[in-house]
Amino acid sequence: MLKFLLRRLANYIVLVGLAASMAYLLAAASLDPRSNYEGRNPPPPPAVVDRELSAYNLNDRKPLALRYVTWLDGLRHGDLGRFSDGDSVNAEFGRRIGVSLRLLLIATVVGGLLGVAVGAYSAIRQYHFADQAITLASFLTISIPVFVLAVLLELVAVAFNQAVGASVFIYTGEYTPGLTGGFWTLAVDRLQHLVIPTVTLVLGEVAILSRYQRSAMLDVLGSDFVRTARAKGLRRRTALIKHALRTALIPAATYFAYSFALLFVGAVFVEKIFGWHGMGELFLDSVNGNEVNAVAAGALFASTLVLIAGLLSDLAYAALDPRIRVS
Fold first, then answer.
1. Whole-prediction pTM value?
2. Does 293 map to a domain?
3. How far apart are CA 34 and CA 68, in angstroms?
4. For 4-56, how does the pLDDT look when each residue is reduced to its tens digit (9 = 90+)?
5. Is residue 146 domain-shared with residue 202, that is, in the same domain?
């Protein structure tokens, strides 16, 4: 088991390195940090611009290979580089990573659990009204882009607040600036800001994962081992949960690693729409602002999330399928 996990970890580390390297090379070759100095009054001398860009490893007049080697050397020492204004990417990265993880971790756990439960229930109730309603709702949610879904939920939050005459759901920012009070006052305020962005991500996660789980559950419901378990006297609920659901969870565990990356893509739009200053917003602003090092840091963050999710997926796979433990 340990040998299997170490082998998979080594593979994931190589993939993370390749993903981050490709992101850096693509950003360094296509973005133009020099344009950030244009339009200043008075305009800085070209020599000054070259000197600053060289100091931040952003000078497009230097060979791409040389800039890449410099970036790798900094990454080896834990330095993600600088913005074009000289600010540290590490400092901004550290401030924003916690913001994104609050959204991503909650959405992943809640969306994963609900997706599995909804998909399994839909399979058990195949062709019944509940199954048809879940299928319709899932396909409808999947067909709606995440930024459209976010705006729709904003409108729902506004209508609900007006109906009850109070700001129950707050959808702008992570917290209310200047709010004073005790721990519970601040905690409730954070929760009010967290609900709508999280629900936006959870709905998409549940819609997709429930389709996978329903299909996997249907494949095992008619299997011989499920019928054998029932013939031995196990109650239907026990047979479904202990045997059918456990086997059907294996494809969902494999899908988990990939869904985490898709969730980050959705979080890019969600953070921007709801004013959450996390890694998704930083990545989008960095592309628009020609910030090569920050774009590479965002890609490194996303690929690291996939690495962690992949390891968790492997652990879940090994727990669900004993044959993996001896591989």
1. 0.80
2. yes
3. 17
4. 778 878 888 888 889 889 999 999 999 999 888 887 778 888 888 889 899 99
5. yes
Residue holding tokens 């090092």? Answer: 293
Is 282 found in the same domain as 183?
Answer: yes
As a whole number of angstroms, the distance between CA 181 and CA 187 comes to 10
Domain harbouring 164, CATH code: 1.10.3720.10
Q: What is the DSSP letter of 44?
A: P
**Using an 8 Å Cβ cutoff, are 261 and 302 in contact?**
yes
Residues of the chain with pLDDT under 70: 1, 243, 257-258, 260-261, 321-327
Strand partners, 88: 82
CA distance 169 to 159: 10
> Tens of pLDDT along 195-222?
999 999 999 889 988 988 888 888 888 7
Are 191 and 79 members of one domain?
Answer: no
| Dihedral-angle region of residue 290 (phi above 0 means left; psi in -120 to 50 means alpha; beta otherwise) | left
**What is the count of structural domains for the chain?**
2
Q: How far apart are CA 141 and CA 208, in angstroms?
A: 9
Could you count the other beta carbons within 10 Å of the beta carbon of residue 182? 7
Pick from 126, 143, 304: nearest CA to 215: 126
Angle at 86 between CA 80 and CA 91, to 5 degrees: 45
* Domain, as residue range, for 31: 1-84+289-327
Do residue 139 and residue 34 come from a single domain? no
